[in-house]
Amino acid sequence: MFMTGVRQTTEVDYKYWSPAEVMPRSVMKKLQLERLKEQVNYLWQKSPFYREKWQNAGFFPEKLKTLKDIRLIPFLKKEEIRESQEKNPPFGMMQVPGRGPFIRIGMTSGTTGEPVLIPFTEEDYFGVYCQGAVRSVWAAGIRKGDVVHVAFGFTPFMGLAASYDACEHLVGALVIPGGTWSSLMRIKMIKKLGVTVLMGTPTYLLHLAKVAQDNGIDPRTLGVRVISTGGEPGAMSIPNTGLRLKEAWGSKIFDFAGTQETQYMAWTCEEGVGHINEDLLYCEVLDPETNEPVKPGQSGKLVLTDLVGKSHPCIRFESGDIVNGIDTETSCKCGRTLSIFKGFSGRTGDIIKVRGVCVSVAGIENVIRGIKECSDSYEYLAIKNGRGMDEIKVRVEPNKDIDPSQWENIRKKVAETLQLSFMVNMSVEILPPGTLPVYELKAKRFRDLRSQGVSGS
Ligand SMILES: [Zn+2]
């Protein structure tokens, strides 16, 4: 099996962690179908929940002949998991009976309701999830001898946790936690311990660079060679965020996206290109209105099927993410054959339709991060304006060292750039630096206030 082969990393510096990364496309498709069939048969036998759900939808395992037949399987909605866990706590009906013992619990951030809990056995966690994560660590050039500081509080957030464990247990790097450290303490420790790799959310690592600068330290002199971000859209989805990080830290920038409910999904290679762990996860990109597959490489809603997890597998899970597309045709310079992931453009609720134009929050973020006078603190609101029309209001904080007399010019610049990018007018407000909160994990930058009748003041 490709997924469970733990590489002994120190003897030879292999370019790829797993042979799955360079598997010929036809072999990958075959492997995906094999694993999908195996997963579906397993659940049909072991999971009363799936059996009943599928029977009700007229699906049974024999119908699955090609990968396309996955469309015969009904979707699994986040609300279904949540309701099931409320009725049958703690893990609900998607937990396969008899699986265990569990060694780790993942938890969604609960931004859209009660958090969902996902249990992992040792096999599911170290044998599968971390094997997805370690490819990202390896592609970022993290090796034994590196000193990795994981700059986030230790929460049941799987993406960063698995990257942490991959660095420590699979690669053999020195990993330094520091959940309760202040930003200044982190800067001191980065210097003292010779940290070469920083992991965290893009928002927090940009903030950390600012703290260093405010204390008279140029982050670029600290010797951080690699920055690996997760937890919210980073360089893979918002290129200007990657450029800002690179400029602040002078490091190579990598980005990963792990899903809580299924598998560690995608990560960037040394070319800055996103790749998908397709042997672990089957991804569909569908038109959000018709549920038909979009053309290859086009934007749509992401539906995920866990091909390998056995404790709480999600099959045709509606992730709630809108993605920029998956490219199965183009080959990457890095030599990997895994499909190219073009990044997230937002959650389904984060695509705001204003006067017929779809605006993604990631798109707004990319614009703001491209304007050098704007700090990393900003938010955007969907509101009803005075005439009852939908409107987007963007609130930005200028950089601290800019004189307030320049704020109006910055406001105009942001408004013009947004207008050019989206062909729709947005109102822009300047806030004094330090007004908006600083986030360590998952910045909450978008609020939809339209149903509350807020008129944007
Ligand atoms: Zn690549």
Counted by DSSP, the helix tally is: 10
CATH homologous superfamily assignment of the largest domain: ANL, N-terminal domain
- Rounded to the nearest angstrom, the radius of gyration is 22 Å
Fold-level CATH name of the largest domain: Rossmann fold
Please name the CATH architecture of the largest domain: 3-Layer(aba) Sandwich
Bound molecules: zinc ion
Distance between the termini: 58 Å
* Global morphology: globular
Share of helix among residues?
25-40%
Keywords:
457 residues; alpha/beta; Rossmann fold; GMP Synthetase, Chain A, domain 3; 2 domains; 9-stranded mixed beta sheet; 4-stranded antiparallel beta sheet; globular; binds zinc ion
Descriptive notes:
The protein is α/β, with parallel strands linked by helices. It folds into two domains: 1-342, Rossmann fold (3-Layer(aba) Sandwich); 351-452, ANL, C-terminal domain (GMP Synthetase, Chain A, domain 3, 2-Layer Sandwich), CATH 3.30.300.30. The chain has ten helices and 21 strands. The strands form five sheets. The chain has a nine-stranded mixed sheet, with helices on both faces. A four-stranded antiparallel sheet has the order 10-11-12-15. It has a four-stranded mixed sheet with strand order 20-19-18-21. Strand 7 (252-258) and strand 8 (264-268) form a beta hairpin. Bound molecules: zinc ion. Zinc ion binds next to loops.
